[in-house]
Amino acid sequence: MAEITLSVTENQIDSLIRLTKEDLPNESCCLLVGRIVNDNEYCVEQVKIMENKMHSENSFQMDPDELREVYQWASNNSLDIVGVYHSHLDGSTPSSTDLIFMKLNPVIWLIYEVSGSRFRAFTLVQDILKEVKIKISRE
């Protein structure tokens, strides 16, 4: 199987970091909308900011109506939901709760670790956690 890649721009990364800092101490969350190329490259074209309905520093929950709106918008624009973004105060691997939701949402999960100022991305392949390469471009 070819290496899975998440392609994002510097501006998108900067926006995610800015959003995360604004939401502290709570986790922030977004949907990553774009295109899947050749089943192994997930290209982010838009970051859709979502409200963390839990207002928690240890977990997040997106509003079902807001989710439906973004999925509909993506479909109407011939785009895919290519990823779920959220932040962790400490640790950059999926939590046990993340793993449960990763099974329900089989896309790339991008996590920003606030304490380490780093991004990591993951997906489940046949229920096995795989790290995804993050490719950051200027535009």
Radius of gyration: 14 Å
CATH class category: Alpha Beta
Q: Strands across the major sheet, in which order?
A: 1-3-2-4-5-6-7
Mean pLDDT, rounded to whole units?
94
Number of strands: 7
Write the H/E string, N to C: EHEEHEHEEE
Q: Write the CATH fold name.
A: Cytidine Deaminase, domain 2
Estimated share of beta-strand residues: 35-45%
- Tell me the count of domains: 1
Report the CATH superfamily.
Answer: Cytidine Deaminase, domain 2
Structural class: alpha/beta
End-to-end separation: 27 Å
Query: What are the segments in which pLDDT stays under 50 over at least 5 consecutive residues?
Result: none
Profile the largest sheet.
7 strands, mixed, barrel
CATH architectural category = 3-Layer(aba) Sandwich
Helix content: 25-40%
How would you portray this structure in words?
By secondary structure, this protein is α/β, with parallel strands linked by helices. It contains 3 helices and 7 strands. The protein has one domain: 3-Layer(aba) Sandwich (Cytidine Deaminase, domain 2), CATH 3.40.140. 26% of the residues lie in helices and 41% in strands. Strands 1-3-2-4-5-6-7 form a 7-stranded mixed β-barrel. The longest helix is centred in the first third of the chain and has 14 residues, at 10-23. It starts with a strand and ends with a strand.
